[in-house]
Write a structure and sequence with these properties.
76% helix, Growth Hormone, Chain: A, 0% strand, single chain, mainly alpha
Length: 296
């Protein structure tokens, strides 16, 4: 950015980063259950290929998280987030223009790479904008914005299905324009930390746990894995089960069922921040078990 250009204040920057986090997650959930049945009918592909569509997003996301996790520390938050959000806009444009399974796979993979590249920079940027005494709030805001965005994306796309047989014609151009606007806003993001030297070795995938946090991490792994496994099962099966078992034939039901899930996650995140980790882990495990029994 040229010298002398104004940057956003900390509060405005924090709001923009939060909005970008929620928007990325909204775009991630928007195509899933609401649109995939339409795509299967339109392009006649199997359930196995639908699973591949889910997998390519996860592959792009995980690959970017492993290799790009420190990129914003080395190139600066502004540059990395600007590029990642433009890439997210590109993925929305590919969704919009998709005319077959191949384009859908490309769109989903590009979206995963964009999300994975942006998320570490967004989380670090939120920490940058907070006072040191409130640094713990950054992770909480990221989690809440993530679940709220997932709820908004799935529910919004589900409601569009009630009024149009081609909701993708409206949703993806709007999301693409939103990401372009957010990318432009990132040009005014203040850089409050000095970038580290860049080397290609920084892109080498590394997985590590801070020794001070290792025991806490290992204690929460079973609950975390179980929670995400239950969430994945819900995303894959519940919209279809609602139609087949409960016999609800509302087009929006797939998206709205996911909205209910993530609204509950958002509410739980807001409430659980006041409790001790051990209490949250135990209570969450009990509630997940009760939820599984209710479905059984």
């Amino acid at each position: 950015m040229p010298a002398g250009r104004r940057t956003l204040g900390r509060r405005a920057a924090f709001a923009v980063l939060t909005a970008a986090t929620g928007s990325l997650m909204a775009s991630a959930s928007a195509p899933s259950p609401p649109l995939y049945p339409l795509y299967r009918e339109r392009w006649d592909f199997s359930m196995a290929m639908l699973t591949v569509v889910f997998v390519v997003y996860a592959a792009g996301l995980l690959g970017a998280l492993l290799t790009m996790r420190s990129l914003s520390d080395r190139l600066g938050r502004r540059r990395v987030l600007f590029s990642a959000l433009l890439l997210a806009a590109l993925s929305m444009a590919i969704f919009w223009a998709a005319d077959g399974l191949g384009a859908l796979l490309i769109a989903r993979f590009v979206q995963g790479v964009a999300s994975g590249t942006a998320m570490s920079g967004l989380a670090a940027g939120l920490l940058d904008m907070l006072p040191a005494v409130r640094a713990h709030a950054g992770a909480r805001v990221t989690a809440i914005a993530t679940s709220a965005g997932m709820a908004l994306g799935a529910g919004g796309m589900g409601l569009l299905l009630e009024s149009s047989s081609r909701p993708d014609r409206y949703a993806f151009p709007l999301l693409a324009a939103l990401f372009v606007c957010l990318a432009a806003a990132m040009l005014f993001l203040p850089e409050v930390s000095t970038p580290l030297p860049f080397g290609w070795a920084a892109l080498r995938p590394r997985i590590g746990i801070d020794p001070a946090a290792r025991s806490t991490f290992l204690a929460t792994v079973p609950t975390t894995v179980a929670g995400w496994a239950a969430t994945g099962l819900f995303l894959a099966l519940v919209p279809s089960l609602v139609r087949a078992v409960v016999h609800v034939e509302i087009p929006a039901i797939g998206g709205l069922s996911i909205t209910c899930l993530y609204l509950a996650v958002t509410a739980g995140g807001l409430w659980a921040g006041r409790l001790r980790l051990a209490t949250v882990t135990l209570l969450g495990s009990v509630l997940m078990g009760l939820g599984a029994l209710a479905w059984a």
